[in-house]
Amino acid sequence: MKLTKKQQEIYNILIERYGTEPLPSFDILCKELGFRSKNSIWQYFQKFLELGLIKEKFNKFFIPSIKSGNDEYFRSPSLKIPHFSEGVRAGFPTMAEGYSDTNISFDEMLIKKPYSTFSVTVVGDSMIDAGICEGDIVVVEKGEHVKDGDIVVANVDGEFTLKYYRSRKGKIYLEPANSSYPIIEPQNELTIVGLVSGLVRKY
Question: Is 37 a catalytic residue?
Fold first, then answer.
């Protein structure tokens, strides 16, 4: 599958301006490339990812090059820490007699598809009843194949949001996990960016 003329132009600009350095944020690319919305850039990046023209890990995009050392970045070993499988009680305390019987890697546990996964910080409390708080970081697997009840990142009429995906009786809408917020029904366009597959919270 080949690039269109416009896609090739954008890709050439990325190579000329940034080479093998990590590509800047979509906000910066919007300003530098003259796009009005981040979604427009994302459409190009989806095609580049599909063809292997760019790679992604830990929410950073690269134009792959053996000489640049970027391939080593993608093969970097995981950091593993001891894991106590006995668990810990959240109620009354008990003596901790468990022992570390294995090691776990959080990136391996949270990221099943590195080249199609990104993370985003949660803003607002519309998903509070789902246990998702403002400031949390959600892990998102890109893709449009979701089912009723999945928590998704979606683009609704040009705005990005994090909500429950609902599909009932032929009607598709987005539902918050907070009764203070209304259900969102797309007026013109609804694009599913990805499925939330994990969450990170730091205390």
Answer: no
pLDDT in tens, 44-61: 999 888 888 888 877 788
Task: Enter the pTM of the model.
Answer: 0.58
Active site residue 67: no
Per-residue pLDDT of 106-128, as tens digits, reads 777 887 776 678 888 899 999 99
Q: In sequence order, what are the residues at sequence separation of 6 or more whose Cβ sits closer than 8 angstroms to the Cβ of residue 142? A: 46, 116, 117, 118, 193, 194
d(CA 101, CA 188): 53
Distance in angstroms (rounded) separating the CA atoms of residues 36 and 49: 21
Other Cβ atoms within 10 Å of 48 Cβ, number: 19
Please give the residue range of the domain that contains residue 51: 5-74
Q: Catalytic pick from 55, 57, 142, 163? A: 163
Query: Of 58, 74, 90, which residue constitutes the final position of a domain?
Result: 74
